[in-house]
UniProtKB/TrEMBL annotation:
Coiled coil: none annotated. This is Protein kinase domain-containing protein. InterPro entries: ARM-like (IPR011989), ARM-type_fold (IPR016024), CIK-Related_Protein (IPR051177), HEAT_type_2 (IPR021133), Kinase-like_dom_sf (IPR011009), Prot_kinase_dom (IPR000719). Gene3D superfamilies: Leucine-rich Repeat Variant, Phosphorylase Kinase, domain 1, Transferase(Phosphotransferase) domain 1. Residues 771-789 have a biased composition (Low complexity). Residues 662-675 have a biased composition (Basic and acidic residues).
Amino acid sequence: MLRFLKGVVGGVSGTGLKDLPYNIGDPYPSAWGSWTHHRGTSCKDGDGSPVSIFSLSASNAQDSLLAAARNGVKRLRTVRHPNILSFLHSTEVETVEGSSSRVTIYIVTEPVMPLSEKIKELGLEGTQRDEYYAWGLNQIAKAVSFLNNDCKLVHGNVCLASVVVTPTLDWKLHAFDVLSEFDGNNGNATGPMLQYEWLIGSQYKPMELAKSDWVAIRKSPPWAIDSWGLGCLIYELFSGMKLGKTEELRDTASIPKSLLQDYQRLLSSMPSRRMNTAKLLENSEYFQNKLVDTIHFMEILTLKDSVEKDTFFRKLPNLAEQLPRQIVLKKLLPLLASALEFGSAASPALTALLKMGSWLSAEEFSVKVLPTIVKLFSSNDRAIRVSLLQHIDQYGESLSAHVVDEQVYSHVATGFSDTSALLRELTLKSMLILAPKLSQRTISGSLLKYLSKLQVDEEPAIRTNTTILLGNIAIYLNEGTRKRVLINAFTVRALRDTFSPARGAGLMALCATSSYYDVTEIATRILPNVVVLTIDPDSDVRSKSFQAVEQFLQIVKQYHEKTNAGDTTAASTGISSIPANASLLGWAMSSLTIKGKPLEQAPLASANSGLPLSSRTSNASSEIVVDSPSIAAVQINSSTDLADQPVPESPTSTDGWGEIENGIHEEQGSDKDGWDDIEPFEESKPSPALVNIQAAQKRPVSQPVPQPKAQATSLRPKSTVKVTKDEDDDLWGSIAAPAPKTSTRPLNVKSATTLDDDDPWASIAAPPPTTRARPLAAGRGRGKPAAPKLGAQRINRTSSSGM
């Protein structure tokens, strides 16, 4: 006997079951009619995605079951609706076993499971069960209304077995074997309208269908049969039992009171008076609950305005706690992630997403939430970026090092240069979590350049937090980078900041990283800068300075004792920091991980400080800006010994850390070798007028008649890089502002012109004019015409007016 395969629906054909690109798995215990419902996986592209496979077999190719099954396949393939089972593939296979043959029809659909099995799995009770049933019935009623009212089709057998559930807990209608067109226009016809009505169980048939009264059926509304079936589904759902006979429908003890009246109208004995499913959706009180309203809002989110979205997402975190947990995680969470990913959700939705994600296991969080978060980092919406950074402590640890280095950091780094101070500070604080996951190439080539710029940011709190961050991420820097970065950043920048908490942060960061410095660096570069702050105007800075001096002197004493004992390795290997440093690092990290708005940040107590830095480096820039100038003024005038060591007037300079020298000993070499390869990012170009002024300031100038006094008091030119031995007494001389007057090439001015010694601009001022204004002539207000010049003679232009 000939063996063959043939496709029966939509031109689908194959060469045998071995060519079916799906693997058939174990069957479910129940399915509609004679079908068997199998679990399955896809073989396409080797992804192994789950599917459902329905199969029906018969020994005769002309069996009526196969004819009905072919009708169901055709209808399922052509009817598309969100609440109808999605068709993927179908095929029909005929196999020969001995002298007999067998025909099997396979339908492949999206992955689903029978509703009866899903209800047992969820185990919902009470209000949560009723809310979920309301959502499911709402979906099935939409599918039935679509078939009856829009397509003029009759399903014929709506019941518990004809409903399946997706992984996202959506209910979908299937079992289309009996599906037929409604033939209401042919009222005189007496033949059956439903060709395969014999497949319907007698307990599910309304009175007119049980009597095969096709004339009455054709005169009835299109929804009459399926409204009755929807009533049967409601009974089976709430009673928890399969309908055995029609009379059982009169038992309404298990039906919710808010649904009872509609249930009775669906099961009216008169077909013309049965309730239309569309009216059920519009008017039923039962469908008005928090779960249905929430999911419905999410599904039409694109139609809502920004005010409605913002209000909804701010309430969603609290609302999610009141809804069934499994429905939130399997239905709401995917909807929310999709809305955020495609830009239809507002920034407050991220808070709800992370709260729902916290209810997942680590593995599920990495699969369902993290991919959306990673994509959100590329968003241009500043509110989304701020929200991501504010909540980074909730998901940062779940990000892999590869994802952070290759996908996340490049987008986060744009916040370092943002015009918003809040976004710059949040970006800075996020590095406490992201920096450990960055490669050395990214840290040295990008992160440190941004931090160099932020340490001279116009916001004092940002400068302070940059120093704190450097102290915390020092452990992740390689040895060479530490030597180039830390001392310059903490001493040259932080200890000379006009903002007192920034100076305090520099002192504490030095103490926290003391194990990274050798004794030579401590004695020649750190202690001289720290000792100066023991007379700082701010008492907190003075206290921290004394603690730092004691700590570093203790390290030097340990080195002295080891050297006397014959240990020559102490200077090169460095000395371990004292135990007190552990509390400093913990305090610094706590100050960076406070969440909330600036006014919501609570101060953290520290054993090593009188006032915690976190309470003084909040985002309340209004307080910072007012206090900062007064602090700087007091610091400058605090002692005459510091006249040559002024605090920089403006912290907004963008020079790199490597361009600043300590100026202590020439033998130690310039500190420039530490930061010459780390330069700040290019700033915006200044205006042409500012360029001209800056060029004039850089041009060497001199007094017309050098005086002996000027020679004795002249300072180094601004371009001086090396520090001479005569300046060893001047600790900060290398970064002191140059004097306004220098002795170099004189300007081209007349000797009679005198310069005002009190005018710093006199040396580069333009010479006075050498011409005098001519008197105006009477009449037309013009003077005598000037004598013709060479150019005018060349033109040889004549005029009859005698000009």
